[in-house]
Amino acid sequence: MDVMVGRVRGFQRGVGRISPAALVVRAGVFLVVLAGLALAYPAEVLSGRPLAFLAFVALTPAVGPRRVWPTFAALVTVGGWVLATDGYDRPVTLWRLLALAALLYLGHTLCALAALLPYDAVVDPELITRWLLRAGAVLLGAAVLGVLLLQAAGIGGDTGHQWATVLGLLVAVGLSALLGWLLRRR
Predict the structure, then answer these.
(1) Are 110 and 29 in contact (CB under 8 A)?
(2) Contact yes or no for 61/73 (Cβ under 8 A)
(3) Of 116, 114, 104, 131, nearest to 33 (Cα)?
(4) Residue 146 to residue 185: CA distance in whole angstroms
(5) What are all long-range contacts of 155-164, with beta carbons under 8 Å and residues at least 24 apart?
(6) Euclidean distance between the first and the last CA atom of the chain, given in angstroms as a whole number
């Protein structure tokens, strides 16, 4: 019984030490991941129990950003995108694709920031502002470059091209392998 009382008191002390900056970042993770899930899944799925499950999925990376939960949430989001386009015949539109990619990246970078911040960290708000401005610059640059490259290649409109998806996947796998090799080489 003393062990249980000690754990409860330790939990209470820990909750009392949580800083506002850590809470704001983790709330941002939750909101961004939830927005990505809402954008990815079809409207027919976003009610009742599936919505509660998606809220739970969005909560997991906010609570455990150092664990497997950010990857799990990203995979559930991509699964929703596939379900919406293949199962519910939602057309692939450029704005929705760019918005979903932006939300996935923003969720990823906020999880990285949350993983670096202990719950009781005292943080200058300028650090969070600089982090978000850098993420915004990356998103803007990627969106502009992506649209320009799609226009130059003649890919666009409402039709999707499977070869472009496969090529993008191969480039992502190749870059991941290159980064892994560079990290092991150190």
Answers:
(1) yes
(2) yes
(3) 104
(4) 31
(5) 156/94, 158/91, 158/92, 158/93, 160/92
(6) 50
130-136 long-range Cβ contacts below 8 angstroms, 24+ apart: 135/105, 135/106, 135/109, 135/110
The per-residue pLDDT string of the chain (186 residues; one tens digit each, 9 = 90 and over) reads 778 888 888 777 766 777 788 888 999 999 999 999 999 998 888 888 888 999 999 999 999 999 999 999 999 999 998 888 888 888 878 788 888 989 999 999 999 999 988 888 788 888 888 998 988 888 888 888 777 777 766 655 555 556 666 666 677 777 777 877 877 776
Single-letter amino acid code for the residue at 8? V
Pair of tokens at residue 156: 């666009």
